[in-house]
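Sync notes, pocket subgroup
Present: LS, DG
LS reminded everyone that the earlier model was apo-only. Rerun requested with nicotinamide-adenine-dinucleotide included. Inputs:
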Amino acid sequence: MTGTGSKASVYQTVVRQFERAADTVKLDEGVRKILSTTKNEVIVHFPAKMDDGTIRMFSGYRVQHNDSLGPYKGGLRYHPAVDIDEVRALATWMTWKSAIVDIPFGGAKGGISCDPAEFSQGELERITRRFAFALGSNIGPEYDIPAPDVNTNAQVMAWILDTYLSTMPPQERNRSVHVVTGKPVEAGGSLGRDKATGQGVVYCIEEWAKDNDVDLSQTTYFVQGFGNVGSWTARLLAPFGATLVAAEDHTGAIASADGLDPEALTEHVAKTGGVVGFPGATPIDHETFLSTQADYFVPAALENQITAETAHLLNVRMIAEGANGPTDLDGDRILGERGIDIIPDILANAGGVVVSYFEWLQNKRSEFWELEEVDGKLRRRLVTGYARVRDAASEFDVDWRTAAYIVALRRLERMMRRRGIFP
Ligand code: NAD
């Protein structure tokens, strides 16, 4: 089990990544100044009633980085490490992500600094509803649209939806269902949203395999984080015949040279709360986990996992970043020196926001798309985004992360220059 990730400023990492790409493309100075800072930052302190009748205070955040391309969009995270620095970083990454896959959304992120494992379902519901109430009109279906992230899920989105609609005038309610995405399908969600981020990671891995003449059925890989993104990535890789040889989550790490069955491991995690104790697997320590010999590694947990201390341990050809910000600046440099390919987070995990966009569109149009339609459209967005990043990497002779930023920054620059600055 890893720590919660060093809290060395994640936002500083984003700023440095941004500056490197902005220098490379000689980004317009005005655009650079605007994108260098977040637009709005909301911090709310709110009470919630615990099961024993006591009141606890919580701190919640919503940071809106940029809305040049469309309404603010981004997940809500419930985790003890949530603070303004982390939320700023995550909000900024959302702006780049939407730009790369060309969807009309800006970037935002939010969360509550808390450990949801401490609370009953009833407490979590009351915390969530008070948070949504405290955010009030800082979110809205045409303004800022939350979605799930670490430790939040479709149920949390359904509570936010219900709270938001309950505070609307009755005639507005049916027009506001798209205030959150990642909802349960019965409450206006889209087919395919649950698996969307993992699906996007797998589409990227497929493209990488094609580019590098790799037969996925002969590949081995390991995953850090076996929640939404990690487990779906593994379940969707299984039909290709790829072998999952190790997995880690907050309970510890396990390995099996013969392969871990992703479906059975998902069931085990649902039943026991973590990967540890999975029948037939060997428990391993964190260092052994990171040193696993495999073709690729999918970090799908928290930030700052691949650093100066850990990057030399990795024994893979490629890293597909399911998580946001799993690699810090030193980690990036070391992986580059070692010739390890990276499919960067703002491309690899963009599948979630793409299907969130599809859900938002379906709600606005009162439509319901079949899964094949959702998957087909998602694949096209990801494959196109992947090709744009690959082309920018060769045009500017830069690493893939910088290339991904370049794709995003050029898209934003075109839009912002056309619109100009008010007044
Ligand atoms: P989740 O809450 O479903 O799962 C998180 C996983 O991380 C769990 O398996 C947990 O045990 C593990 N984890 C937590 N602390 C850990 C630690 N110290 N060491 C090892 N593992 C640890 O969250 P998720 O939605 O799967 O998100 C995972 C990552 O993917 C995050 O970086 C998130 O921002 C990113 N992401 C998620 C989505 C989405 O649609 N859910 C979209 C884009 C990016």
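DG: Residues 371-396 form the longest helix (26 residues).
LS: Residues 1-2, 4, 148-151, 197, 224-230, 248-250, 300-302, 322-324, 349, 352 surround nicotinamide-adenine-dinucleotide (CB under 6 Å).
Action: DG to write up.
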